[in-house]
Sequence to fold (335 residues):
Amino acid sequence: MSSIGAGSRKPVHVTVTGAAGQIGYALLFRIASGQLLGPDQPIVLRMLEIEPAMKALEGVAMELDDCAFPLLHDMVLTSKTEEAFDGANWALLVGSVPRKAGMERGDLLSVNGGIFGPQGKAIAARAAGDVRILVVGNPCNTNCYIARSNAPEIPAERWFAMTRLDENRAKIQLAKKAKVPVSVVSNLAIWGNHSATQYPDARNARIAGMGVFDVITDHGWLKKEFIKDVQTRGAKVIEARGLSSAASAANAVIDSVKSIRTATPWGDWHSLAVVSRGEYGVPEWLQFGFPVRSDGSIWEVVPGLQHDDDAKERIRITTEELLQERDLVKELVPS
Ligand code: NAD
Ligand code: LMR
Fold:
């Protein structure tokens, strides 16, 4: 493709795995239109699929072409893992099998876990020096842990697993209950695993700058139904749609990347599962959902949040689940 008219900025290479799947379909067009990296940033989309889905991927690429997105500089369609990650600046690891009704996300480990070791190795071998990786495929914390552990050359801080959909789900539940616009709900952390044990933390969240427990007086709801609703929202979507969340998941991918690469508004934080360095007593090296703030290039786990006994117990349970998942994938991780 000629570079005439493509702008003077160097294109950023964004790899999307599972690009012909339902999240891929909801995500690629938003990336190509500039919603991921901004309205001036040309993009090369590198799309990975398994061989049987390559024809469907060609159809997706035709549609991307037919949008005539000015920022879409080029596309690479491939079933070869190394080629997909060649020169990637961002790697969005979506490709994997979603759960069906009645399953927990952890039940997918045996089928999906094996995808992520080889992808971690390929990223280490072929991606750009500044690559950052967001794992979406479930169970995303442990899949990210597998991929990261297979890529020791890449700093552990470049790896993220997606808990942002849970943050967004929690915020809208609080906004509806308090009858306020969702834009005034802030400081919502999801602690731990993207699973039914996650802890959506209303105690430290804020509504228009005030404590959630001061604004919402139904504390019974905050302590029980709210938490359960967020924990089980993915299953409810599957029950209703017959398919797992896709557009909201793609939206959360956009939100996650934005909150890594742009400065977090002062005093706020967002939810990302990042490598534990022992913060809040979480065992090191787990990929753990924490409140995270970024200055646009460096991020940190927000320190100093207080937890009551109920929160501590919930964080213990979700930590325990991640330790169990880690034990289950021992053979997928170099010792
Ligand atoms: P989907 O089945 O519609 O699409 C997945 C795609 O991945 C398919 O096209 C498939 O061919 C491809 N694929 C499978 N194995 C692959 C491999 N080894 N390499 C490359 N591609 C491969 O599923 P979906 O609805 O797009 O969901 C994808 C994943 O995202 C699932 O694991 C789902 O549970 C997870 N998910 C996570 C979140 C989150 O918040 N973290 C939210 C929604 C969905
Ligand atoms: C979600 O939270 O919607 C996804 O993780 C899909 C699922 O299996 O629930």
Residues 98 and 244 are 7 Å apart (CA to CA).
